[in-house]
Specification:
Elements: H1 2-51, H2 67-74, E1 82-95, E2 98-110, E3 114-125, E4 128-143, E5 146-157, E6 162-173, E7 177-186, E8 191-202, E9 207-218, E10 230-242, E11 248-259, H3 261-269, E12 275-286
Antiparallel strand pairs: 1-2, 1-12, 2-3, 3-4, 4-5, 5-6, 6-7, 7-8, 8-9, 9-10, 10-11, 11-12
Length: about 290
């Protein structure tokens, strides 16, 4: 019986002391881990501070200077004017009236906010200009991607020349559509509106498909130039170009051109087609 009592007392003592020893050992290990972590962080910070070396202060402090002095020092002038000439279309077409040559060119010169634009487009059939126009415009940026334009336009070709005052907008619409919309006022109460939009789809960095939509509206009939009021004409064209260089790109395409309302009546009376599908081959150049 005495042996059993001694055994019971020893077991009870073990059960009481073991958890306390285990807790002390766990605390000791945790203290060791915390110390190692702190030492590692201090070592890393010391290493980072050692590797980072602050640059030397500038020897010559640049003080206030005029814009002209800054341009001279940096050899860069943000206000310097520059220009560009873009032949968007220089092409051949097989129209219902025969082979035709068409051009669409614009050029501009100026700065970032104010420029002078020259635009011209037209068509030559059988060595005769059928319909063409030229514009001289002042261009002023009024918002990001958008500018307002104002100036004069002259129509020439078949029929008498017409001169118009012009005002419009040009810019980049959402989803990357290039848009032009110009309103014209001429003599004898004539008015007109020209709308144009195009979109470039890039198959590669060099192979590009351009979709183009153009429409013309007139406020009143002009029988001498065979133009009727309302929607006068419209065109949808697809041009697939390959940019040999950014500045030089041959292209091929197709186009559908139609005349509407009173303009179509004038065309029928003259024995002309009111709609025409055409094949296109041309060259786009800018410099």
């Amino acid at each position: 019986m005495r042996r059993n009592n001694h055994f019971d007392c020893a077991a009870i003592a073990f059960l009481l002391v073991a958890p306390l020893s285990f807790a002390q050992e766990t605390d000791h290990k945790q203290h060791q881990l915390d110390a190692a972590t702190t030492q590692g962080a201090a070592t890393a910070a010391t290493s980072s501070e050692t590797e980072h070396v602050a640059p030397e202060p500038p020897e010559h402090v640049m003080g206030d200077m005029s814009y002209a002095d800054m341009v001279s020092a940096m050899q860069m002038d943000d206000t310097s004017p520059f220009g560009r000439v873009i032949l968007e279309q220089l092409e051949w077409r097989n129209t219902s009236a025969g082979d035709a040559a068409r051009w669409d060119v614009k050029a501009w010169y100026g700065g970032d906010y104010n420029r002078v634009f020259v635009k011209s487009h037209g068509e030559l059939v059988d060595d005769a200009i059928e319909d063409a126009s030229a514009e001289l415009l002042w261009d002023r940026i009024f918002a990001r991607w958008w500018s307002v334009q104002a100036g004069v336009r002259t129509d020439f070709g078949e029929g008498p020349e017409r001169t118009w005052a012009a005002v419009g907008v040009e810019g980049l619409a959402p989803y990357w559509f290039d848009v032009e919309a110009t309103f014209y006022v001429g003599d004898a109460g004539r008015t007109a509106l020209r709308f144009k939009a195009d979109y470039d789809l890039l198959f590669t960095q060099r192979l590009i498909l351009r979709t183009e939509l153009e429409a013309g509206f007139y406020g009143k009939d002009d029988p001498e130039r065979q133009l009727g009021s309302g929607l006068s004409s419209g065109e949808i064209a697809l041009r697939l170009r390959y940019e040999i260089r950014r500045e030089i790109a041959p292209y091929i395409g197709i186009s559908w051109h139609g005349k509407f309302a009173a303009t179509a009546d004038y065309a029928r009376a003259s024995g002309e087609d009111v709609s025409d599908a055409q094949a296109i081959a041309g060259l786009r150049i800018w410099f």
